[in-house]
Amino acid sequence: MILRMLTCVLMLGISLTSTVFAGSERGSRLIAEAGGAAAIPGVAGPAGAPGLAGAAGIQGIPGVPGAPGILDFSDFYALMPGDNAATIGAGTPVLFPQDGSSNGVITRLTDGTFLLPTIGTYLVMFQVSTTEAGQLALNLNSSLIANSVVGRATGTSQIVGISLVTTTTPNGVIEVVNPPGNSPALTITPDAGGTHSVSAHLVIVRIQ
Length: 208
Known about the structure:
The protein is α+β, with helices and mostly antiparallel strands. The chain has a domain at 72-206: Jelly Rolls, CATH 2.60.120. It is built from one helix and eleven strands; from the N terminus they run αβββββββββββ.
């Protein structure tokens, strides 16, 4: 009798335990499916230590050198009528007796000769109105620069020249001349093409 009662108690306990477990699993599943409440975020941790510096990069390709600049400059001019009243004979310079813009380094020696004080390369440009067909050129230190000769065979337009002149000694002297051996003498035309005085210009720029 007692044994039978113990067996019943044990079976009842097992049945209750199974029911509790089943209820717990089903509850857990329902909570999981419904989603639990969000947790409160934790406090941020301290910043980490700085990392090691990276290796230096490869050196870049060198840039292209800049173009030569303007180092010194001067503009000398004449106005006709008034200036260059006489004709310009062979070997004689055109006169540019008036001063235009300048930084004061390239200067005048006489009305027809001009000082290049610094050894370097100069851009030399001139324009002169002449009545006769003829030629003009540059002299450097009283020597004709052969590749500077320009001329006009016919007509009455200006004679225009442009050259790069490189000096090898300081205080070079440059002038615009009617080349030696040429004839006739050149008339620097007054009032060419109108009623206003006509200019002749000599512009010298040191670029190197």
